Amino acid sequence: MIKILKYMRGYTVFAVLAPIFKILEAIFELMIPLVVKSIIDVGIAAGDSGYILRMCGLLVLLTLIGFSCTMVAQYFAAKAAVGFSKNLRQALFDHAQTLTFSDIDRMGTSTMITRMTSDIAQVQTGVNLTLRLFSRSPVIVFGSMIMAFTIDVPSAVIFAIAIPVLCVVVFGIMLAGIPLYRKVQARLDRVLGITRENLSGARVIRAFTDEENEIKTFKEQNTALTAVQKFAGKISAPMNPATYLLINLAIIALVYTGALRVEAGAITQGSVIALYNYMSQILVELVKLANLIISMTKAAACADRIAAMLADGGQPLPISKNKEKQDDFAVTFRGVGLTYQNASEESLSDISFTVRRGETVGIIGGTGSGKTSLVHLIPRFYDATRGEILLFGVDVRAYTAEQLRQKVGIVMQKAVLFRGTIRDNLRWGKPDATDEEIWKALDTAQARDVVEGKEGGLDYRIEQDGKNLSGGQRQRLGIARTLVADPDILILDDSASALDYATDARLRNAIKEMENDHTVFIVSQRAASIAHADKIVVLEDGRAVGIGTHTELLESCPVYAEIYYSQFPKEEECRS
Amino acid sequence: MPVMKQTKTTRGTLSQVLRYLKRYTPALLLSLLLAAASVVLTLYGPILIGDAIDLIIEPDRVFFDEILPLLIRIGIAAAAAALFQWIMNIINNRITYGIVRDLRSETFEKLQRLPISYIDSHAHGEIVSRIITDADQFSDGLLMGFSQLFTGIITILGTLIFMFAINWKIALVVVLITPLSLFAASFISKRTYSMFRKQSQTRGEQTAFINEIIENEKVVRAYGHESEAQETFREINERLESCSRSAVFFSSTVNPVTRFVNGIVYAGVALVGALSVMTDPAFTVGSLSIFLSYANQYTKPFNEISGVVTELQNALACAARLFELMEEPAQIPDEDGALVLENANGNVEIDGVDFSYTKEKPLIKDFHLSVRAGQRVAIVGPTGCGKTTLINLLMRFYDVDKGEIRIDGTEIRHITRKSLRQNYGMVLQETWIKTATIRENISIGKPDATDEEIIAAAKASHAHSFIKRLPMGYDTVITDDSGLSQGQKQLLCIARVMLCLPPLLINDAATTAIYTRTEMKIQNAFSRMMQGRTSFIVAHRLSTIREADVILVMRNGSVVESGTHRALLEKGGFYAELYNSQFSGSAGAAK
To answer: Nearest CA to CA, how far is A393 from chain B (Å)?
Structure first.
């Protein structure tokens, strides 16, 4: 909470001035009962209507000054709160841009999005309310007591007793409520979970005719939720009545003491009214304060979560100093193992192979066999937890992020395009790419017809998530996007799955015919896509169970043979 | 102020709401009665205090004999008001939470009776928000709104009556100045509305950008697009700051403005009141005190009421959405005297069936199929050809538009849904795991299964070995994302079917195109299950097809070819074409 206060920078002045103006307003408000007292004690007593008129004019003036102060305070509070949340949001977003893949996996994107949207909104409201009310309410409450002391000490003692008692009641009930509301939230989440689950499993539930059981479970959880809600309600129900009663008891005491003091000639009738007015003001402000503290605790919880995200991750992967060239291969894997954070087992184990410049490597294996994990090590999305990886003979950890991005281009499994024109999207890998370069990449990616078929060509606007393109079109544009950057090592991570067989083949040929010696990794579940690679790595459960050419593997690697023959039955030979 | 979509907050909704409240009528009436009593007593307090103040004039003119009974009366009035409020709070809690509970349970129950088409065609998030959020806001907004509105009106009316009764001139001052505050408030809220709209637009833009970038953060990192993204974000963020600032500021001026008007009323009352004390012997200093304390609280209910109106509108909008769900036509109930199908033989006939999800797009036309008990039917075809639809029709998730589907000669609409579905074992592509123990997950189709039966089913589906290794074995509570692999989930889904072993099977499980050990196990489990049972297999891989007795080749909603693998290949038609292109190249892309 304290940690994120630094994001108030640039708005500190407003954050300080807002409560000050608020306090000023409160002080002017505290003077009103005194003016009323003078009207009664001086004006009415003397029958001086001119004095009364002047005093009422003073009342209007006080109200007006108070009003101006509040308006200033409201504006400063809004400025500070909104500015603070702006800074915080930018900081969070910037922080997200420094996270490593492991950080992202650990935090989860939906959590990050919640922090940046609803959590920040809560914090903004909390800050705004705090700046506006947190100074005003205590000033009114304790100011009333101080004013009471200036009027009459014995009467003021009643304030000194009533205020702590009221505080105990208000804050006691509130504190008792907080854990209960947390319980309510937990129960509510459960009910929500059941509903969501029920919807996603509607077919299964009906197929197994489990509806009645689902209803039963829901009703149980729902009733449990209601029970906690009712209990929490029962706890907070006496708050308003109890404080009302207490204030009235205090007023009774005040009137009685006032009567005694007037009888003794110590104070006037107007003073009694002033004391009564001060007492009435306290209640409203105390209740406001209690509500404020509830929203403050909520905002503080959000602030803590935000602070936790800001403190989490974002450490750039260390750059190794060892720039020694160890071999002449384009890519070398030496006894590589990978254990993801918080995973108990290795996702990749003992992977060793070498790839010469210009070679094409096929990587094949079942779902979860580690294909994507393997290729993600090449651009150093993750660091190998065992062994080492060399790019062009040099440890991958010795390259800067920028160098790696220039050397390695990866087309990810899910073809994601962003809102903007096709040109904007294709320039991601190379911001200054010319249209000529873009068209060349499109040709290789077999995507020329996609762009030519769209109104405006390269200026065609892609909608969010590429909704206005088909899966195959997205994939081809995604491939082109990587090709524009013209990387030395090109990785296609199952990125042609939505293409038909013929297009897939044309794409592979076009990539093969590209200028310069590109080293290409093709990850696929289609045996046909990788059968002609110079080298095929067969993965099963994170281990390389076969490395070699198609013909070699068909002989020596039963897993490969199994995969191959499941797709190409023995009686019919591969037709590609 | 939230920007609200005016859903049909018609009189219809209102009367439905009232009908819904009917069962709570006595409690509601009691609550209103208590509210009224407590308000009147609260307003009575200042009068008693004013009377007491009139008895404290100056030394030797303080009348303790009369003050003491007054003080006791103040105490009693306050205690009674407090007690009434307390009881009212408790009653209101009961009503509110009772209504939400009932609403939730009823909508959830309704959901189980709605046709699958409803669930298919509505975003799940939206349905969930109806059952959870709308129900909550409805009862909360309705009751809180209603009781606040009621209390507010009584307070205003009561104050006015008391004031006019004591001194109509001062009361008139109050009545004349008050509308000022209302004008000011409505002026501000009109202004703020457009600002709020701009704010929510910009916020929407920002949220969309955050979603787009953060969800694909890995892609952003892979292309080194971070600084461009930061720049765009900064630009939107600055814009949001400026429109948010105006919106937040203007909305926070409502309170000060009404307080200001309140202050003017207060000064006016003080002026006219003080002058009256001097001229009107019936108007005492105590009366002035009464007026001043009334003037202080009088405008508060106005503020509340304007908030309450929005709240009530919102509550009605929520109610409209809820009732819309409740009034969705339920699935057609089972016929009277529908047959309870027990252990079907497994002869299935589909006879001249037409079906479409939407009237405009006919999907299945004049579909014919005859399957003998024990046959293995594989369904092949490109995506969208109607494979899944066929399952929907067989299980009666959807009803046919024309034609008949018969099991053992009985039309399925003459059979109870429950018994029809109990005769099918279904494994779907999407593995669904509910948050419950492994045991409960397996026994979903047969809740009274013994432990031995459950373990036997798990063993038969090769799930036992991994279940054994879980921390609590069969009592481990699992959720959809609690770390089970896709394959393990699939094995559990098969275990479910293994436990029931119904005479008909439907298998739409897309095991990936490549054999791994787990997938082999899944495959073996399937094969064993299919022995002697009529089974429908949606073909995701070649081997399943080749073992089938009949292959149905579907295209655009109808069967274009059927026969065995060999016969179809020899024919050289659509199947051969599909087989050669799609299956030889990409078994994985079949779906």
So the answer is: 22
Same domain (yes/no): B81, B133: yes
The complex's ipTM works out to 0.85
**Nearest residue of A to residue B243 by CA position?**
A82
B577 token code pair: 């074409």
Residue A241: burial class (beta carbons within 10 Å; 0-12, 13-18, 19+): buried
Q: Which residue has tokens 């298919």?
A: B120
- Tell me whether B123 touches chain A (CB under 8 Å): no
Range of the domain at B89: 1-166+301-331
Domain count for chain B, please give it: 2
Same domain for B86 and B105?
A: yes
Tell if the CB–CB gap between A214 and B112 is shorter than 8 Å: yes
pLDDT digits (tens, 9 = 90+) for A338-361: 998 877 778 899 999 999 999 999
Asked if B131 and B194 sit in the same domain, the reply is no
Query: What is d(CA A167, CA B252) in angstroms, rounded to the nearest whole number?
Result: 27
- B4 and B47 in one domain? yes
Are residues B154 and B72 part of one domain?
yes
Tokens of A72: 């200033």
Give the C-alpha separation, B400 to B425, whole Å: 21
List residues bridging with A519 in a β-sheet.
Answer: A489
Class of domain A331-567 (CATH, top level): alpha beta
Q: Is residue B151 part of a domain?
A: yes
Contact B463/B488 with Cβ under 8 angstroms?
yes
Judged by average pLDDT, the poorest of A221-230, B135-144, B407-416 is B135-144
Mark yes or no for CB contact B263/A63 under 8 Å. Answer: yes
Gap from A383 CA to chain B (nearest CA, Å)? 15
Instruction: Verify that B178 and B248 share a domain, yes or no.
Output: yes
Contact A482, A458 (CB under 8 A): no
Q: Bin B133: left if φ > 0, else alpha if -120 < ψ < 50, else beta.
A: alpha
Cβ distance B435 to A93 less than 8 Å, yes or no, reads no
Q: What does the pLDDT look like over A176-198, one tens digit per residue? A: 888 888 888 889 888 988 998 89
Are residues B232 and B210 part of one domain?
yes
- Is pTM beyond 0.80 here? no
Distance between the two ends of chain A, CA-based, in angstroms?
63
Note whether B162 and B181 are same-domain residues: no
Residue B271 contacts A where some CB pair is shorter than 8 Å:
yes
Distance CA A74, CA B541 (A): 67
Phi, psi of B558 (to 5 degrees): -140, 160
C-alpha to C-alpha distances, A327 to A330, A390, A489, nearest whole angstrom: 9, 8, 17
Q: List chain A residues with CB under 8 Å of B275.
A: 49, 52
In chain B, residues with a C-beta closer than 8 Å to the C-beta of A113 are: 210-211, 214-215
Range of weakest confidence among A62-66, B180-184, B579-583? B579-583
The answer to whether residue B532 sits within a structural domain is no
| Within a domain: B97 | yes
Q: Confirm or reject contact between B100 and chain A (CB < 8 A).
A: yes
Q: Per DSSP, what are the bridge partners of residue A548?
A: A536
Tell the residue number behind the tokens 């992202």, with chain if given.
A104
Question: CA-CA distances (angstroms) from residue A465 to A420, A468, B174, B209, B213?
Answer: 10, 8, 59, 11, 10
Residues in chain B: 591
Nearest to B556 by CA among B362, B350, B378: B362
Predicted pLDDT at B74: 95
Q: Which residues of chain A does B116 touch, with a Cβ-Cβ cutoff of 8 Å?
A: 202-203, 206
Task: Supply the pLDDT for residue B542.
Answer: 57
At A486, which helix (H) or strand (E)?
Answer: none
- Return the bridge partners of B427, or none: B507
Confidence band, pLDDT 50/70/90 cuts, at residue B512: very low
- Candidates B124, B248, B266; nearest CB to A59: B266
Residue B29 falls within a domain, yes or no?
Answer: yes
CATH number, domain containing residue B130: 1.20.1560.10
